């Protein structure tokens, strides 16, 4: 149906659908231009501030992973999760959603849990990274790892490493947690198999084992 040209008569050759499509394309174009301008502005600001600009070629970085210092070449766009799994071969860290929504890729950064898919490898700096491979001590499983096995807190296992990392971090800061504490610690972890009750039971059991 043609839209009115303001004189009370239908406009010539312009339907509502055409008008809306043209408006949407114009808005999208403006959005792209604004985004590009913002990126250019950030780059220019970085140059003026004297901050080093890297990329797109790989750059050398040094990471402290599970107590060992590793030097590697990474593209500036590479996430910590990709560096761990790809270059370093630490495949215990899983990439699932790749957007920080499921927490499967959880690792510790100076003891604090982070989603490694949401952090660039070059952003880590001198901070210490602990992965699921770094929890065991001289071949002996961490109490949370052992409790997960004992309480059948895993099925497909894809979310398990991230769950273990968050639950182990909880015990570091709260040695005697409640079930509600565990629920809070795994809030944001997505388990398709629905093993949450087993995860809670395992973590509470691990807390008791650590005190024994």
Describe the structure.
There is one protein chain. The model has no long low-confidence stretch (mean pLDDT 88). A five-stranded mixed sheet has the order 4-3-7-5-6, sandwiched between helices. The chain has a two-stranded antiparallel ribbon with strand order 1-2. A hairpin with a 2-residue loop joins strand 3 (59-65) and strand 4. It has three domains: 2-49; 59-134, Beta-grasp domain (Ubiquitin-like (UB roll)), CATH 3.10.20.30; 143-211, Orthogonal Bundle (DNA polymerase, domain 1), CATH 1.10.150.120. The chain is built from six helices and seven strands. The protein is globular, with a radius of gyration of 25 Å. It is of the alpha+beta class. Helix 4 packs across helix 6.
Task: Give the gist of this structure.
By secondary structure, this protein is α+β, with helices and mostly antiparallel strands.
Major sheet? 5 strands, mixed
Q: Number of helical segments?
A: 6
Whole-Å distance between the termini? Answer: 78 Å
DSSP strand tally: 7
Element string (H = helix, E = strand): EEHEEHEEEHHHH
Summed up, the domain count is: 3
Helix fraction, binned, reads 40-55%
Look at the structure and give the CATH class of the largest domain: Alpha Beta
Radius of gyration: 25 Å
Low-pLDDT segments: none
Which structural class matches the secondary elements?
A: alpha+beta
Main sheet: which strands, in order across?
A: 4-3-7-5-6
CATH architecture of the largest domain: Roll
What is the fold named in CATH at topology level of the largest domain? Answer: Ubiquitin-like (UB roll)
Mean pLDDT: 88
CATH superfamily of the largest domain: Beta-grasp domain
Strand content: 15-25%
What is the approximate shape? Answer: globular
């Amino acid at each position: 149906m043609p839209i009115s040209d303001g004189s009370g008569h239908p406009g010539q050759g312009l339907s509502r659908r055409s008008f809306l499509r043209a408006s949407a394309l114009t808005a999208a174009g403006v959005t792209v231009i604004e985004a590009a301008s913002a990126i250019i502005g950030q780059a220019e600001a970085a140059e003026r501030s004297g901050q080093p600009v890297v990329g797109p070629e790989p750059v050398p970085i040094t990471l402290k992973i599970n107590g060992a210092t590793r030097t590697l070449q990474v593209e500036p766009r590479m996430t910590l999760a990709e560096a761990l799994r790809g270059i370093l071969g630490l495949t215990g860290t899983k990439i699932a959603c790749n957007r920080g929504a499921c927490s499967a890729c959880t690792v510790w950064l100076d003891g604090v849990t982070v989603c490694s898919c949401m952090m660039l490898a070059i952003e880590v700096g001198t901070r210490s990274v602990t992965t699921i491979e770094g929890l065991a001590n001289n071949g002996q499983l961490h109490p949370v790892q052992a409790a997960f096995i004992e309480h059948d807190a895993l099925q497909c296992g894809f979310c398990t490493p991230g769950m273990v990392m968050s639950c182990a971090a909880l015990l570091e800061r709260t040695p005697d947690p409640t079930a509600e504490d565990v629920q809070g610690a795994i809030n944001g972890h997505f388990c398709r198999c629905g093993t949450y009750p087993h995860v809670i039971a395992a973590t509470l059991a691990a807390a008791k084992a650590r005190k024994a």
